[in-house]
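Fold this sequence, please.
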Amino acid sequence: MNCAIVGAGRTGRGFLARLLGGQASLAFIDRDADLVEALHTAGLFGIRYFDGSAGETVRGYRAFHVDDPACEGVLAAADAVFIAVGAGEARAAGAWLSGFRLPECVVACENAACPAELLGDPLRDTALSGAVFCTTVEEDGLNLASERYPALHVSDGDAAGALRGLRGVIVERDFDTLMRRKLYTYNGASGLIAYLGAEKGIEDYAWAARDRNVAAQLTHFYEQVNAAICAEYGVDPIEQAEFAAFSRAKFENRAVSDSVARNAADPARKLSPDDRIIAPARLILKHGGDAGPSARTAAAALRYMGVRARGDAEAALRGVCGLEGGEPLFAMVLEMFV
């Protein structure tokens, strides 16, 4: 199988290449001329895993600059094209690719609700979405360090047939449900760590996740949200527990440089009804669980937003969070706010 990876950065090199390596011929395409030259010269690069398990070496690939005329033949010969560029560059990548003859199977790979939509017209309507949950960081030279996340989750569709049988690629029948699980699990936990960590004056994100009090709330949150997700969507409890465990390992990883401030930014958006605090809290309550950790997070987010008076908190719960005064969650958050 021939696979072209557009974007030879952290996701393209450190995640997609090691998933596909050994079962497909790989060609990187990138706009960074120095990176392309380095890939040519080295002929290989290494991936170290955060958990200390044996790393991997990727070799046998080809690399092309976007201005290289050979890109036309590379893309035409590909059985699948994976796009691994940042969200801010996806539309430009989509526009560039639309000038070539492409295979039916094009996969936009990003940590977003619907990565294919980031490509813009015309690819947004035909490309598949690939959910990237794996954190990868640059080390020295071309080498990277990464989580040992085992899979790329891809939306289903006629074009997904080319991917079936590839080790490490999971074609999801219900991609929307997967992304709801991601919102409730990954984003829900992320919000808890950020706002409870900020209240304790912790600046480093991994340290916040490992703080004794924050970690206790996090453990309880995972127990409650996992049970609610399984009840709502019929997900196997072991599968959901593993899904949550990967998120926790990501957040607690001190090798990943991140800050509480970055994760706590834009609290009004994160307090909105369909985002990471209120939505999982409502789901937990719907299935008879304890939404205490989420309510505590909501109260902390309100304070982080600058809300100080009870009356202002009530107004924010209605206007920002979309909660009604008679909802149990309204009273829970308000109790923890004051």
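The two ends are 60 Å apart (CA to CA). The chain has two domains: 2-173, 176-337.
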